[in-house]
Amino acid sequence: MLRIFLCGFLLQFALLINATGFYSVVGPGTIRSNSKYNVAVSIHKADGPSHIKVSLNGPSFNETKEIEVSPMSTKNVEFEVPKLATGDYNLTAEGVSGLVFRNTSKLNYANEKPSTFVQTDKATYKPADLVQFRILFLDENTRPAKIEKPISVVITDGAQNRIKQFTDVKLTKGVYSGELQLSEQPVLGTWKISVSVDGENRESKSFEVDKYVLPKFEVTIDTAKDVVIADQVIKATIRAKYTYGKPVKGKATVSMEQNYGYDYSSQEKQLKTVDVDGKGHVEFDIKYLQNSSWTPPMRIFAVVTEELTGNKQNASTTVNLHQERFKIENFEKPEHFHLNKSFVYQVAVKNVDGSPVTASAKKVKLRFENAQYYFSGPPTEHGIDFEAPVNENGIATFSITLSDSEVKYYRVMATFDGSQSTIGTIGKFQPVMEVRDPLRIQLNTKTPRLGERVSFDVTSMEDIPYFVYTIVARGNIVLSEYVDVPEGDKTYTVKFFPTFDMVPSATIYIHYVINDDLHFEEKTIEFEKEFSNSIDISAPVSAKPSEEIKLQVKTDPDSFVGLLGVDQSVLLLKSGNDLSRDDIFNSLNKYKTSTPWQRGYGKYPGETSGLVTLTNANYPYNTDAILYHPLILNGAFPMAIAFSLAAPVGVGIAGPPTLPPSLTQVPQVRKEFPENWIFYNADNVEGDGFSLTKKIPDTITSWVVTGFSLNPTSGIALTKNPSKIRVFQPFFVSTNLPYSVKRGEVIAIPVVIFNYLDKTVDAEVVMDNSDKEYEFTEATNEVLEKAIDEVRRVKRVTIPANSGKSVSFMIRPKNVGSTTLKITATSPLAGDTIHQKLKVEPEGVTQFENRAVFINLKDQPEVSQSLEAEIPAEAVPQSEFIEFSVVGDLLGPTLQNLDNLVRMPYGCGEQNMVNFVPNILVLKYLEVTGRRMPAVETKAKKFLEIGYQRELTYKHDDGSYSAFGKSDPAGSTWLTAYVMRSFHQAGKYTDVDPKVVGAGLDFLVSKQKESGEFPEVGKLFDNSNQNALALTSFVLLAFFENDELIPKYQSSIEKAVRYVAEEVDKTDDQYSLAIAAVALQLAKHPQAEKVLAKLEGVARNENDRKWWSKAPETTGENSRIFHWKPRSNDVEITSYVLLALLEKEPAEKALPIIKWLISQRNSNGGFSSTQDTVIGLQALTKFAFKTGSGSGNMDIEFVSSPDGGSKESIAVNPENSLVLQTHVLPKTTRKVDFTAKGSGSAMVQFSYRYNLAEKEKKPSFKVTPTVKDSPSQLLVVDICAEYIPLEEGDKDKDSNMAVMEIALPSGYVGDADSLGKIEAVDRVKRVETKNADSTVVVYFDSLTPGDVRCLPVEASKAHAVAKQKPASVSLYDYYDTERKATEYYQVKSSLCDICEGSDCGEGCKKA
């Protein structure tokens, strides 16, 4: 053990120049930009006062302060640290007179950014909703942070398109409030709000955009969290209540099974069904577990089905099982025992839930057993036993004396009332091991909190002469004092008042010097998480629909207050949008300090507190160890912010208060059913608060109101608990509608009338159709219905007190859009009217089209053009959706869609590359065009890393790669070449092992034939590459890419180039020629010119666009069927030709090709499949290098016809060049004329979609759906798939990879449990669902002609819909999307199943 000086943590030796006495200088181990840095300087023992200089030094900050410190005292020195440059900083202390010394320690440098929080008003939005959000910037004191640099906010959609950009955002007291209006047809999925400061991403918050129906009630499970198996039973209460607080009647299906933490369904699943009226009780037997050696927790899952509507809501909980009834733990024990010397040993006895066992007559037994042979054999029978009673806090105190001199270690066993535990070991005191008696800090305050004095004891086995205590919190010293201790005392109590900067945790560091040695101890105190500001919202507990409500808000003056009020149903659907107290306090942990790294081991000052100590006192610390593990102290890692507190928001407050309704008997119409109610900002609260008066919506529910207050002095506060306002009336009508129905379907509108009066009432329910938005129908028999030309229909119903009854009206919606259902219920005692909107969508299958034009104003001041929407006459009426958009940067959408480039799914070794290569291209693109987008670069590099690691899982031992890795018999030549080429390109941006590339190229050389050809030795999904010339050219690209290895493989390359040069004369296959052209250009071979000339001769030209296609040219009517669907192979051939041309021609010459290529992109910026996207992007990127992109300014004016609407204009400039600026045009638009003026380049897109109700004209697959008989709530369809090649030459070939998309009929959702049955079918590789489980997607690795594969698809009914429109099943080729078949199937749905009472005609009379 070395005795050395502790001098900071680099353990340097101090220069002891005539020092007579001891000093210590304590400071945080971490120095931070823009913050205070406090140093505590103490003189312990000295002859007189000392003059000391304390300085901080580093690349951008050097400051020295001088102080005089008397002996036996402590002084604090405060530095204001400015913004620091990165580098090494030191804390140095120098004694100039009195004690003369110089000592220094290196510091950690940290540049913590202020915390950023994003709050949205909801977690999930519907199309056409308004998204409201606030962004808060907080400093380390939770006050509004000062942000000097420009702030920008970007909102991206589910496909990562940049939809809106707020630049140069200005904060009000640290807060920015913004909004975004969603369109009628937004991209569904996860949207994101990203906040950047000076281009660096600080925080992002995601929200969902989805089509959903709000839950009307909540289910909870009450059960003990901890159960003893000996009790033989787990009891649970299932509670269900509506959001307005009343009980739900229905049935609960409750299951219980062992929860292994992964998908494993155990044999012992128990299922019970109970009736629920607000609550229901179940008991599960656990006798069978009594002898189990291992008992994982039990998961209880309850589904409550509401009697009136069949709506379901679920809840789950976990119960921990225990073999022992009591837990016995050490409470207070010494580290060591002295022979024959009495010591105190305390244990705590707790119940399984952690609460102390109190008032028990039984005693605790403690047994000490010889533990020398701890690891070799069972416990021995011989032990020393002690007994003690349990006090009122569950603590048993023993006085123990051990006298066996032979025993060095004892194992300690404790028993209480049948429960036994081994609670540890205790060793005999060894003088060598102990350096000194330990010093301890004992906290006396049970729950330390703000506003209450905190006390702690400092105790030692020896006398304490004096001590210095220092409290560090949030990275700085907040309190430091010198304490004199009366002579002979071994304990001293310190009391202090906590300050807000000690929350949530602070560390006490105590030290003193005695006999030249430094004694010290550290302890962390956790404080209650309380803010120094406060906000309190008082609101009425209940209200009537549309009532004016007054909220009273109390908070510190001069605060910014943000309020938020939403329907509780929204929170039941999804929460996590609101600010959370825990997140805010957790974010303060990043300010913790830590000591610089040091070698060695043992306990040292600062280990817990992160403080460095400069001193000339001795401290034994072991550095001669071999252990070099770094001690990462209080890791100052920023916490990932995850919003978890449930409470979201509502709509901005506006408009004058309305007048009270006149008191007539006509029920007031309830028609305002927003999901959010309040989203209100008060940016300067005067006095101690304000009041807000606002009309509450008409929904019968509870509104949840939360708020925050942000104050420049006292910081932030959140409401402790949300305020709930229940909106209720004793008699009301409610509907249970699906998200949408299709036009022309018959739907039974379920209407529920609730009567919470204390009398039974007879009510008349009327549905009013005076606006003729739909037809009433009634079922004459199971399939025929007749339209009834009535303006209103009436049903009569008797509703008992405190219950509900449901009736239904059958209607057929006539128009696409939103249909208003007007429903009134009246009774002698009360009445209610609601106007509820039903969303009606067009029938048929949606077709997407995209026309894109590249505009370059390099040589001309303006360009005019017109684009037409070719919507066929047979398109479903009112199904059109038309948009005109502009993006300044050619590759803009690509940058926004790094992880979503291809519209189709992917998964195998070949498709994984699409997750990989575009990222390389984007990084290359950013580099060449000189664009700085750090966030995109980081994201791209991250994806490269993931893609690289993922691809390696498809590697064979011989260095080759295949689609499904080692489960394939051999590696693929094509895929290996592709991977080698891509890995080399990626090597510039991420770590790629050169050995991996070498192994792959060696594999390729090993397979080369004498002729120079590279044959395919594995299996390929995409058959178009299976020709020798194309494949050999493709492999050559991999060798040319690895340019530094060309000398190594020279002979192999020359052989292959010779082979390609000879073969090109023998073929007219455009695909092979195009790749060969690139390979020959790279080889600088004279044949390249010839090949390009040959390709030039077969190019297609139309309207200033040029491309290549293997498909026969079509003329006349048929030519219009497919041309908008990108034909996968054409994109690939054209891209290769473009790459070859760009090797030698100026970029402008290639513009017609670029224009065609861009017109083939889908609106995500990719092409329709993997290979196209990669080669297409490579060509576009190369073009962008040559032309420059995304720079310049232009105005684009456009006008749509036939409506001849007014002229609108879009401005493009470098600031917004990546934003997709979109205008939705009228449904009748068929043409857009636009003119662009200015400079630079841009891309214009004219995107439209419409529905078609017919099948494809030329399918290559056959799909046969058969609907099976099944119970009425279940749908079982057998769908058989077969590949039928169109071309003679393909008759014996398998198809490429195929994808089947099965749309379920309206009202049905996929049954997740049954997906496994589909996956079990041969040739099926993967199954998933999308669009809220309403579509099932199945991937086949390939299909063989004549080999039929049938899939069992199951779905369950979620809503009452009949006469559903046929649902589609599409099967398409992943690589050649034109090969597609669509079939429709129809569910037998009897109108009699959904009609009720008088709606059911004679034919429906049930036997």
TrEMBL record:
Record Pfam families: A2M (PF00207), A2M_BRD (PF07703), A2M_recep (PF07677), MG2 (PF01835), MG3 (PF17791), TED_complement (PF07678)
Alpha-macroglobulin receptor-binding domain: residues covered: 1295-1385
UniProt name for this protein: Thioester-containing protein 1 allele S1 isoform X1
Alpha-2-macroglobulin domain: residues covered: 676-767
Record keyword Coiled coil present: yes
SUPFAM superfamilies named in the record: Alpha-macroglobulin receptor domain, Terpenoid cyclases/Protein prenyltransferases
GO biological process, one term: immune system process
Coiled coil: 767-794
Organism: Drosophila kikkawai
All residue ranges annotated as the Alpha-2-macroglobulin bait region domain in the record: 439-573
Encoding gene, per UniProt annotation: Tep2
